């Protein structure tokens, strides 16, 4: 059985990888997204209501499709990451990384000793097919993908140090939270936020690491892509469903158009 991380291989060979967010905790949603043709689908356990059993169900639902599941967890937690790795997660986004020490902590979480602190429990691990993957211990470290999310002023200020941490594969920028951190909540397209993101993209590219970004703006997606972003999130299942159903309802009930909602990210 192969445990190859196709997403990690692709980004390190310079390929752009487009993905979509999964915030709906149901296997049907996972299959719909996984079969759409994206390179990766991100299960959002930071803001979405996913417990570990639901995460496993999403992983299983996506497993028959040619797509890489990526998991965003609520924060840096080596114990939680250990359980999730045994469940089959190979690629993590960890939010609100604001120091080299935090970056080093999440790198150590995904690696077996002597390089890291991952616990050994393959007899109980779906990732190792319950000890049916030959030489899992020798292969696993190289297939783990660590994505540090920078989404605050503190994170931007620490970026130079974070980029020096060996084992961080991707630095993923979060314009929405960065905007809030800059006092511009709800304005991820503000010129000051875009300028900060541009500066970070330049530093990430110069460091040799991979840059990632999430935005709903097709204009910004093209701009950030042109400036070096390789891991590009282009949509969220919840927003796509919310907008499509709202638009359909408004077609038949025009009076609903007077109601405003904030769907920027």
CATH superfamily: Phosphoenolpyruvate-binding domains
Amount of beta strand: 15-25%
**CATH hierarchy, class:** Alpha Beta
How are the strands of the biggest sheet laid out side by side? Answer: 1-2-3-4-5-6-7-8
Outline the structure in words:
The mean pLDDT is 95. Strand 7 (210-214), helix 11 and strand 8 form a beta-alpha-beta unit. 43% of the residues lie in helices and 16% in strands. It is α/β, with parallel strands linked by helices and 265 residues long. It has one domain: TIM Barrel (Alpha-Beta Barrel). An 8-stranded parallel β-barrel has the order 1-2-3-4-5-6-7-8, surrounded by 7 helices. The termini are far apart. The protein has helices at residues 6-12, 27-34, 52-62, 78-87, 100-110, 136-143, 153-157, 159-162, 175-181, 191-207, 218-226, 237-252; strands at 17-22, 40-44, 68-72, 91-94, 145-150, 170-173, 210-214, 229-236. The chain contains 12 helices and 8 strands.
Topology of helices and strands:
Layout: H1 6-12, E1 17-22, H2 27-34, E2 40-44, H3 52-62, E3 68-72, H4 78-87, E4 91-94, H5 100-110, H6 136-143, E5 145-150, H7 153-157, H8 159-162, E6 170-173, H9 175-181, H10 191-207, E7 210-214, H11 218-226, E8 229-236, H12 237-252
Parallel strand pairs: 1-2, 1-8, 2-3, 3-4, 4-5, 5-6, 6-7, 7-8
Helix pairs in contact: 2-3, 4-5
